Each structure stands twice: as C-alpha cells, then as structure tokens.
Structure prediction request, 286 residues.
Amino acid sequence: MIEPRAEIGILGGSGLYGLAGMEGGEEIRVATPFGDPSDRIRLGTIGKTSVAFLARHGRKHTLLPSDINYRANIYALKLLGVDRILSASAVGSMRESIHPRQVVLPDQFIDRTRNRISTFFGDGAAAHISFADPVCPELRTALLAGSRAEGAVAHDGGTYLCMEGPAFSTRAESRLYRSWGVDIIGMTNLQEAKLSREAEICYATLALVTDFDCWHEDEDDVSVDSLLATLKANSRLAADVLRKTVAGLPRERRECRCGQALKYAMITDRDSISPEARKRLAAILG
Ligand SMILES: [Zn+2]
Prediction:
C-alpha cells in the first residue's frame, strides 16, 4: 500500500489535461494490480485539501474511450487514499433546453458500451454492488452549487448515456436515445462510476456540453473552430467549478452511503477468497 496522499481525485476529460489553480507540482507513477493508469498523477492542493489529478485520455490525449484502463485509473486513486472523485467530461446534448457551454450534473446512466471491463471482482471473489443510484448525492449537490457559484447555467439531474465510440452516433441512434429520455451523451463515465462504487469512493460527473450531437435539425454542422472555442471555454469553466467545489466540500462524508457499498455486496465468504484475489483487491477489501 502507498501512504495516503490525496483526499479528492479529479479526472479530467477532453480539453482538461491539467488543473489551473492547483498548488504543487509533484507527479507520480502509480502501479496497480490492474495495470497502469492513463498517465502520471499530479498531486497538489486546492486550499487546504489534498487532490490528485489524472487526465483520463492521457495528457496528450492519446487514449480512445475504449482504450482507457478504467480499473487502473480508479484503483490508483484508491491507493492514493482518495475517497471522492470529481469527473469533468465533455458531452453532447440530447435536449433542446441543454445548450453548448452549459453544464449538467447527471444522476443516472445508461450503458451502451461493449466489451469493457466494469468490475474489480471475478477470479475468486464475487460481489454485486447496488447501482440504482449511481452518482453520489452529496458530491453531485456540491458540484451543482460550485457550478452556480461560478455563474454557469447548470442543469440539476439528467441521464447520461455512455456509448462505445469512438465514432459518434448515427442519426437513428441519436433519435432513439432521445426517445429513451436521455439528456446527454458521452463515452467514458459509466465504467468510472461503477468501479468507484465498488471501491467505495464517491463519484459525481460535471458534464460540460460541447454540441447537440446529430439529432438537432436546425443546428448548423459544427466547425472545428467553434468546437475548439467551446472546449476551451468549457475547460476554463470546469477548472473554476472544480476549485470552487473542492474548497466548499466538508471534510467528512456525511450524506451518502458510498463508503459502505461493499457491506452487503460480497457474495463470496471472505475466508473463501483466494490469496491471489485478496492480494489483487487489497486496497478495496482492506
Ligand atoms: Zn458519496
């Protein structure tokens, strides 16, 4: 085990490869039983809170959503002592009322990914976590308050559909997802939310809207210039919101049960877990 180094983990998505305003510049490589995380992790502080920042696509954006080692990313943060993860993510809007450069704090997910490993368990240890409410309510509320305090137009709640990518949806898929009541679409957050819950880490998404996917018939095709300008504006906003949120979070987790997710989830009797699985899952099983 590594000595605890950070209280809060921040996962940066497209356009957010570092965090302006974070003090301290130590970068470390963290090895995990599940392989290597997307990049080195930067350790620092925001105010009095210790934070660990990781760019989920790598700092040069070299990893497709399907190529990200989600298990290594979440496990590495767990090893560093993180018990809350704030995830900043670029998304497409599936609703007329949700515009580019606005933010959404989703409270539900739909999984349309394929062949991604979404669990730490298996190979000698079985567990089924509760995932009916996949987002930490306390962290989500804090992100909402942080967003509004920074002047963002913030939508309270919503359903995030996680698609496989890397190509975007067809128009037929986009219309289908709208008929399902989907609010936003992205490619990365579902696995992170599941693995965080298994690791008993609070997880919440700050979704930054870049475009209207392809369903919107009145919207012009997005030019690269305007998309880049939106990504840049969103990155600035994300950094402001994340700093504000971290600064306002109470030190102790009070209003959620994320920290006891495994209490009734383990099916395998603890004495029957193989030594290999016990070693692999040491940070999670304690
Ligand atoms: Zn929580």
Q: What stands out?
A: The mean pLDDT is 94. DSSP finds seven helices and eleven strands in the chain.
